[in-house]
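Reading a protein record of the kind used here takes little practice once its layout is understood. The reader may check this reading against the record printed directly beneath this paragraph.
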Amino acid sequence: MRVDFHTHIIPQDIPDFSEKYGQDRWPTLHQTCTCGANIMVGGSVFREVTDQVWDPEKRIKDMDREGVDMQVLSPIPVTFSYWAPASEALEMARIQNDFIANTVNQHPGRFLGLGTVPMQDTDTAIAEMDRCVHDLNLSGIEIGTNVNGINLDAKEFAPFFEMAEKWDVPIFIHPWETMARDRTPRHNFMYTVGMPSETALAAASLIWSGVIEKYPRLKICFSHGGGSFPYILPRLDQGWKVWPHLRLTSHPPSYYIDNLYFDSLNYDPLNLQYLIDRFGHDRIMMGSDYPFLLREIPPGQVIDQMDNITTEQKKRMLGENAIQFLNVKEKKIINELTSDVAGREASSSGN
């Protein structure tokens, strides 16, 4: 089974919150044709997208062509809207969470879903996380690497992580509002340099601050292979060693990596081998960033190219690790996938 852990989706009919609430920072979807649209922010094109970003049927056709059995659907980070009043951001989150849950329910053998929550208000975030996992049956929550410039180790977020651990909710951390944005607009460095650096800062903050030590059963996956975090981990250890007055944990940072997961999206077998050597193959999940331009095509290509790991290790990274991380029973998924395929074949032959 091949599970693409890192894919994004947005409702085609998402409301124009800029018109409703009078803020130009809300992302809106302006269709340019039947098969494409622009995500607009503040009157400017934030990203050009194709209809795969909202159409489940198109996604399934791509999945069948590229050999992907399941996708894990998550919101596009620009929709997090942490800057907005919590009640308005909650409305945006609920629309997306309902859409993702409905998409999963319509195709239970092809999709799993992650919800989003308004992290600018912890109580509201916890309540929507509760709804996502206990009412909508979503498989986890996606959050950003910071909340309005505040790192995730801030005390106000502790109750959120406490409840995520208590409810065994997997957390997918994706960069957004990246650091050094004033220095990265040229060359699209926000995507290629800013995002990996932003992810490293989020991971380092959670470990150094003691959040991971305090909530040892918390399950967290960092996108884009963890960004630059895997490569600066020895430097973090050295800092912990030479600055004892800054220590907030009982052990150096590398001690706390056992419950961290990473998607495989770093494009290079050499980098992926480093991830395996540093964290273990059982902590890596295939992810492609579908359907955006920087995605890996076909999903899992780098894993397939590796010739110095076993078939069993590849199987774990290509699908089994994601199923385990998301607390899904593999037998149930296989049955739903088989049923979904059979239903689609019957429908096709009937037509």
